[in-house]
């Protein structure tokens, strides 16, 4: 095999011929059509790949931010039962410079009823004054106030979907049924307590909006007979991505038997599933780019067949096999470069305007891509990362270059005498 001299720079003559072959009107229009299809196919594959990866980046970031707006970066809970010395545990945790705030909580399950409607919910007992240190409920409120949760007031704040399902608004009454019952001669009777709705929040995360209710921590402790104990302590960090390291540091400083878990462990299944899905989608869509790139092979093979006489003449004029090979490598690479540039531009433009394009498609065709009751969010987010764009463009250019090697090598092996015999 005649090797291409990679250490020798491409001469202006080779670049000129390669560019001329790319621009020239060929007698065989079918070859021009195949070249155009290869270029557009690569551009479309790259644009789709960049758009899908950006949407998955945005989906992951959006859900993560919404989850952490309601949950915590780090959570400290008792290994057996609740924590009775939570103030000391919170103080120890806040001694770490990475911790911005802490708040105790009580977590339990219950049934909320209004009229003939009953819904299951997660009941979270909080201290309103400290909850703002670790969560963003104030920004999510659509009506009422978190500060209206007062001790012995038996007031409650509901997620917006939960409030709609129960048919209640601020000022209405709901009945909270706790699973811990009272033993009587007639059997076990559930504990019932009427609460007044003083707030409605919308976190933008269907799981929380449809199944989370907030009450004052002391009311939760009384209702669930926990005394002065709490379920755990929630922490907010200066940098959420340092949560695994900070959690390990806090665990080493604790003298009580507690479990310290960061948000990546508490939601490990979901984040792992999203990451696997993202990688699989990247591999699948990369195959589209690969198919388009290797269409360059068929294009160059046909070009080489058509240009046999030209190649023979160039050889008789003194061109070396490596020069002939460089001519067709340049021609194939130009198809790949133009296709890549077109795809990157289109992909970045589309990914940056998903919030406009998707609603337009939904209104035009009367469809909904993300239903609230199925997906975590109802809007399609997007986050364009230049590292992903660069990686996609690099793969595309590499595949385009590899696709030119075999046809270019075949062109360099053409025998001038045989090629000109019937000309």
Walk me through the structure.
The chain has 423 residues and is α+β, with helices and mostly antiparallel strands. The protein folds into two domains: 12-65 and 271-420, no CATH class; 72-263, no CATH class. The chain has 16 helices and ten strands. It has helices at residues 12-23, 29-70, 86-94, 128-131, 137-140, 160-166, 206-209, 217-223, 243-253, 263-266, 268-306, 308-316, 321-352, 354-365, 386-412, 416-420, and strands spanning 74-78, 99-114, 117-126, 141-144, 155-159, 173-184, 187-201, 212-216, 232-237, 258-262. Strands 2-3-8-5-7-6 form a six-stranded mixed beta barrel. Strand 2 (99-114) and strand 3 form a beta hairpin. The two termini are 26 Å apart. Mean pLDDT is 82; it is low at 1-7.
How is this fold's topology laid out?
Elements: H1 12-23, H2 29-70, E1 74-78, H3 86-94, E2 99-114, E3 117-126, H4 128-131, H5 137-140, E4 141-144, E5 155-159, H6 160-166, E6 173-184, E7 187-201, H7 206-209, E8 212-216, H8 217-223, E9 232-237, H9 243-253, E10 258-262, H10 263-266, H11 268-306, H12 308-316, H13 321-352, H14 354-365, H15 386-412, H16 416-420
Parallel strand pairs: 3-8, 5-7
Antiparallel strand pairs: 1-9, 1-10, 2-3, 2-6, 2-9, 4-7, 5-8, 6-7
Helix pairs in contact: 1-13, 2-11, 2-13, 2-15, 11-13, 11-15, 13-15
Strand order of the largest sheet: 2-3-8-5-7-6
Task: Count all strands and give the number.
Answer: 10
What is the string of SSEs from the N terminus onward?
HHEHEEHHEEHEEHEHEHEHHHHHHH
Q: Low-confidence stretches at least 5 residues in length (pLDDT < 50)? A: 1-7
Coarse morphology:
elongated
Write down the oligomeric state. single chain
Please compute the radius of gyration using only Cα atoms.
Answer: 33 Å
Instruction: Please report which band the strand proportion falls in: under 5%, 5-15%, 15-25%, 25-35%, 35-45% or over 45%.
Output: 15-25%
By DSSP (H or I, 4+ residues per run), the number of helices equals 16
> Percentage of helical residues?
40-55%
Structural class of the secondary structure composition?
alpha+beta
Could you tell me the mean pLDDT? Answer: 82
What is the CA–CA distance across the termini? Answer: 26 Å
Biggest sheet record? 6 strands, mixed, barrel
* Number of domain units: 2
